[in-house]
Write a structure and sequence with these properties.
Blueprint lengths: L13 H4 L5 H5 L7 E4 L11 H14 L6 E4 L6 H9 L3 E5 L5 H8 L4 E2 L7 H6 L8 E9 L5 E3 L6 H7 L2 E7 L46 E7 L13 H17 L11 E3 L3 H12 L5 E4 L2 E2 L1 H9 L2 E6 L1 E2 L3 H9 L1 H4 L3 E3 L2 H4 L2 H7 L2 E5 L2 E3 L4 E2 L2 E2 L3 E2 L6 H7 L2 E5 L3 E2 L4 E2 L1 E2 L14 E4 L2 E4 L5 H12 L2 H17 L14 H9 L8
Helix pairs in contact: 3-4, 4-5, 8-9, 9-10, 14-15, 16-17
Bound molecules: coenzyme A (COA).
The site of coenzyme A has 23 residues, from α9 and β15.
Length: 511
C-alpha cells in the first residue's frame, strides 16, 4: 500500500484524521509526572513540534510557581527542539538512554537532571518487563498514516514499536519533510516475546527482512495527530584529520592480516560507532581492497552511503540515518535506489546480542580512554562528568566477533593521555576489548595476559610524551603490587586524573 503522494495530507485514515490538532493542543495532553517515550535516534526521526510546546507549557507552569517535569525516554540522542528545549525549561526529571545535547549534558553534570545510561538493547525490555514503571505517553514522528491506520515510520525506528505498544496514549507527528520513498525501507519485527516464551530471532543475514515495513497502533490509543514539515537535525562531519586517517590505516592493515586465514575475504558485518574517527574508517574502506562488504550496525553514516554508492558495501542494516546535511539531501533525493540495500530496524533488533553474536559483527567504537590492561571508558571525563552515554557500544563490543576501540592518543591539546594506568570509569571491561587503536598504532590483545596486554598497549598505542611514564608505572606496579596478576599501585592508579583536575595536565610539572 503506497502513500498517495498527490494527496495533500499524509493522514489517509479518515477516523484518525479527525484527531489532527495543533502542537499546543497535543502538548496539553501530557501531564506533569508522565513518562514519555519519544521517537528519535542521532538527530533523525524525533518529534519536532510537540516537545517545543511542552517546554513552553513547563516554563509557564514554573513561572506560576508550579512544578512540571516529565521523564523522557528516547531511542538515543535527538535534536535541540526536543532535548535542548526540554532541558532548557528544566522540564526533564529522568532522561534515558543516550544523549549528546549540550544543555542536557550541562544539567546532568550540574546534578539537576537524573540520567540513566543503559545499553540500547536493554531499553525496550526494561520497559516491557516493568522495570521502569508505566509508560504514559508515546510521542512518535512518522512519515505517513495509511488508509488502514498502519504507520510509515520516519528516518529512525529506535524504540518506537515498544513505545506505541506500551504507552497508554499515543501522539503522532506526521512530518511531510520526510521523503515518502522511506516507505518499504523499515523492517519491524513483532515476534519478540518476553521470557520464558522468547524464541530465536529468525535473522541470519544482515540485509534480511523478518517483519513488516509498518508500525501498528490501535486507533483508539491515538489521542492526537500533529502535522509538521521540519528537517531532521544533522551535523556536518569534519573531514578526517591526520589522527583519524592514521587510526583508519592501522585498522585496515589489521583487517588485511585477518583475512589471511581467520576471516572471509569480504570481512564480517561491520558496525561503526558515532563520530568522525568511525567515519574515517569507512572512508578508508572505500579506498581499500575489500569488496562485497556488509554492515550490521546502529546508524547509517556518510561513509556507509559512500560505500553503498561505490558498490563496495552490498547492504546496510541499522536503526537510523545519521547523515551530514549534504549527504542527506542526496539520499532523500535518491531514496528508492537505496531501499533494497538499507534496512531500518527497531533498536532491540539492530543491537540484539543474539544477532550480533550470530553474524560475527566487527565492532568499531570510539572511546574516551583505555587503561594499560584494556579496560575502556566511553562515557565519563575524569571519572565523573558524562560526555554522551554508552549507546550501543556495549551491545556490540561484548557480543561481536571482534571488538575494536579507538581514539587519538592524546586529548585537549596533549594535556590528557587517553592511555592511562587505570581508567577513571569503566564501560567495557578488559574481557570485552580485543583491540585498542590510536594514531600511534594498534594493540591486538587477543590471547594475552594482563601484563602482556599492558606492555603491548604502552608500546603500540601510548603517545611518546606519556610512554616512559606508563612504563615506569607498570614496572613499579609489577614490583610492589599486592597481586602480580593485574599489577596496580592503588595510591597512584588514578593520580594522572587527579593531577589533571588540580593542575590542568596529566604530565608532572617538570615535564
Ligand atoms: N579525557 C578528557 N576529555 C576527552 C578525552 C579524555 N580522555 N577524550 C576525549 N575527550 C573530549 C574531547 O577533547 C572532546 O572535547 P570537546 O568537545 O571539549 O572538544 C570530547 O571529549 C569528544 O571527543 P572527540 O575526540 O571529538 O571524540 P568523538 O567525537 O570521536 O567521540 C566518544 C568520542 C567516546 C565521546 C564517542 O565515541 C561516544 O560518545 N562513544 C560512546 C557511545 C558509542 O560508542 N556509540 C556507538 C555505538 S553504536
Amino acid at each position: 500500500m503506497a502513500i498517495a503522494t498527490q494527496n495533500s495530507t499524509r493522514v489517509l485514515n479518515s477516523s484518525l484524521a479527525h484527531k489532527i490538532m495543533t502542537a499546543e493542543e497535543a502538548a496539553s495532553l501530557i501531564q506533569s509526572g508522565d513518562q514519555v517515550g519519544m521517537s528519535g535516534f542521532t538527530g533523525s526521526g524525533y518529534p519536532k513540534a510537540v516537545p517545543v510546546e511542552l517546554a513552553r507549557r513547563i516554563a509557564e507552569a514554573n513561572f506560576r510557581g508550579q512544578e512540571f517535569q516529565v521523564s523522557v525516554f528516547t531511542g538515543a540522542s535527538t535534536g535541540p527542539e526536543l532535548d535542548g528545549a526540554l532541558a532548557m525549561a528544566g522540564g526533564i526529571h529522568l532522561r534515558l538512554p543516550y544523549q549528546s545535547d549540550p544543555e542536557t549534558r550541562k544539567r546532568i553534570n550540574a546534578g539537576e537532571m537524573d540520567y540513566m545510561d543503559i545499553h540500547l538493547s536493554h531499553v525496550t525490555q526494561f520497559v516491557e518487563y516493568g522495570f521502569l514503571g508505566k509508560l504514559n505517553v508515546a510521542l512518535i514522528e512518522v512519515t505517513a498514516i495509511l488508509e488502514d491506520g498502519r504507520l510509515v515510520p520516519s528516518s529512525s525506528i529506535g524504540n518506537n514499536k515498544t513505545w506505541i505498544d506500551q504507552a497508554e496514549r499515543v501522539i503522532l507527528e506526521v512530518n511531510s519533510w520526510q521523503p515518502v520513498a522511506l516507505e518499504g525501507m523499515h523492517d519491524i519485527y513483532y515476534g519478540l516475546e518476553a521470557p520464558p516464551k522468547r524464541g530465536p530471532i529468525p535473522l541470519v543475514k544482515p540485509g534480511q527482512r523478518i517483519g513488516s515495513p509498518y508500525l501498528e497502533v490501535p486507533s483508539d490509543k491515538v489521542v492526537a495527530i500533529v502535522l509538521t514539515d521540519a528537517p531532521d537535525r544533522n551535523s556536518a562531519f569534519k573531514a578526517p584529520d591526520q589522527a583519524s586517517r592514521q587510526i583508519a590505516g592501522h585498522i585496515l592493515e589489521f583487517l588485511s592480516w585477518e583475512v589471511q586465514g581467520r576471516m572471509p575475504a569480504n570481512l564480517l558485518p561491520l558496525q561503526s560507532g558515532v563520530g568522525n574517527i568511525a567515519n574515517a574508517v569507512l572512508f578508508g574502506l572505500e579506498e581499500g581492497k575489500f569488496e562485497d562488504l556488509t554492515s550490521y550496525t546502529e546508524v547509517i553514516q556518510d561513509g556507509m552511503i559512500r560505500l553503498l554508492k561505490s558498490g563496495k558495501l552490498t547492504c546496510a542494516s541499522a536503526t537510523a540515518f545519521s547523515l551530514s546535511p549534504e549527504m542527506l539531501t542526496e539520499v532523500n533525493a535518491n531514496m528508492p535506489s537505496y531501499r533494497d540495500r538499507i534496512v531500518l530496524r527497531p533498536q532491540e533488533i539492530s543491537n540484539h546480542p543474539e544477532i550480533i553474536r550470530r553474524l560475527g559483527v566487527i565492532a568499531m567504537n570510539g572511546m574516551i580512554e583505555a587503561d594499560i590492561y584494556g579496560n575502556v571508558n566511553s562515557t565519563h571525563v575524569m571519572g565523573s562528568r558524562i560526555q554522551n552515554g554508552i549507546g550501543g557500544s556495549g551491545d556490540f563490543a561484548r557480543n561481536g566477533y571482534l571488538s575494536i576501540f579507538m581514539a587519538p592518543s592524546i586529548a585537549q591539546r596533549g594535556t590528557i593521555s587517553t592511555i592511562v594506568p587505570m581508567v577513571s570509569h569503566i564501560d567495557h571491561t578488559e574481557h570485552d576489548v580485543q583491540v585498542v587503536v590510536t594514531e600511534q598504532g594498534l594493540a591486538d590483545l587477543r590471547g594475552l595476559s594482563p601484563r602482556q596486554r599492558a606492555r603491548l598497549i604502552i608500546e603500540k598505542c601510548a603517545n611518546p610524551d606519556y610512554k616512559a611514564l606508563l612504563l615506569d608505572y607498570l614496572v613499579r606496579a609489577e614490583r610492589l603490587s599486592y597481586g602480580k596478576h593485574t599489577p596496580h599501585l592503588l595510591t597512584e592508579s588514578l593520580g594522572w586524573h587527579n593531577r589533571y583536575l588540580r593542575c590542568g595536565q596529566m604530565l608532572p610539572r617538570e615535564n
